[in-house]
Amino acid sequence: MEAKTATRMGKESRCSWPGSDTLMVKYHDEEWGVPCHDDRKLLEYIVLDTFQAGLSWAIVLSKREGFRRAFDNFDPTKIAMYNEDKLASLLQDPGIIRNRLKVYGTVANAQAFLKIQKEFGSFDKYIWKLVGGKPIINHHLKGSDIGSSSTESDAMSIDMKKRGFKFVGSTICYAFMQGAGLVNDHLVSCFRYAEVQTPTAGD
After folding, report:
1. Could you tell me which residue, 198 or 83, shows the higher pLDDT?
2. Quick count: other Cβ atoms within 10 Å of Cβ 196?
3. pLDDT of 198 over the 90 cut
4. What total number of domains does the chain contain?
């Protein structure tokens, strides 16, 4: 996949937002907009998006491995049981973004996540039901056409807040939807626009 990405960097049309940042390009080419149905991966996107609020996505991606290590590879059962000692150690960890409210909020989110898994059988079933079970396909011609929220992200935000999630405003929910492929916001001219819609894109 890396060689494939490298080849495309200069030969294919892609969305402009990744710029020339290697991690951003890799994320755009391999993940962004691909329908995700793996619960642990969905939790990872939720955690990263909550920490991204107020910061650039490039900063979050640069610390992604640090987050994976610090948060037990996004195992919701382990995160939900973090005690004060663990939380204190996270706030001293330079490998992540050390925001106290977001660190504590991640524990609350893991607990809410587990409740949804118990109720629906999986978080995947719950979250995809909020968009009718299939990706929303947009048809953007330029970057300025892409919004930061939608009626679906508004509804998702309201429902997730009712279920105990923290830092899930509509803008964060929409960023989550974009990353996890609940919405395809690639430009029509981007080589990934059609690719993420193929049946194997989310495998």
Report:
1. 83
2. 20
3. no
4. 1
